Sequence to fold (197 residues):
Amino acid sequence: MIRTLAPRPHHDLEFEGMAPWPVPGCISLADVQANPAARCCVECGRRLLLLLLQSSSWVSHRSEHVSFRDDRSVVRRVNVEFHVPEEAPVFLGDDGQAYSLVPLSVMRRKTLVNFELRDQDGRPVVVPSLRQNQAITESLMLACAQAALDTGSVLTGDQDAARRDVAGFIHEVVSGDQRACRPRTTPWTMARPPRPC
Fold:
């Protein structure tokens, strides 16, 4: 998240918890599994989806530098120059500062080692927690699915049931453990042509 000065916040920023936006205190992980969309903000997801799709309009430069420390470790440094777009969701922090949430990268679902995010002055930047990233990703994917379902061309029949099924699938893929995730994603990965060697 990047510090900003002027925009009006959409939410108060929750530094702790299962989403960066306020979620009712009585909601538990069991509630989220029963209704995955319960911790999501589809409007924030919609805004982030648009930012991802239009990143060339607000990201002006990306550079990557890879160096090999030894025969077992690699350091990867990515610099991104951008301006914070007006469409970015804005959160009001406990410190009174407004923070914009911008999707700087889409990463594989793996454990990050020694991950740091710093601003132009080298100061650490607030990074959402694992659970918050899951809620953000689910919100973005739900917004994408909702846009597809709203066209009416994707399905016929009970749209509420379809939305629940899609939300459950998204939750399993984003927040489920690898054993639960693999059977749900295998049909999609098997459908892709093999990568060239």
DSSP finds five helices and six strands in the chain. Strands lie at 2-4, 11-12, 59-68, 74-82, 90-92, 98-100. The longest helix spans residues 130-150. Helices lie at 29-34, 42-53, 130-150, 159-175, 178-191.
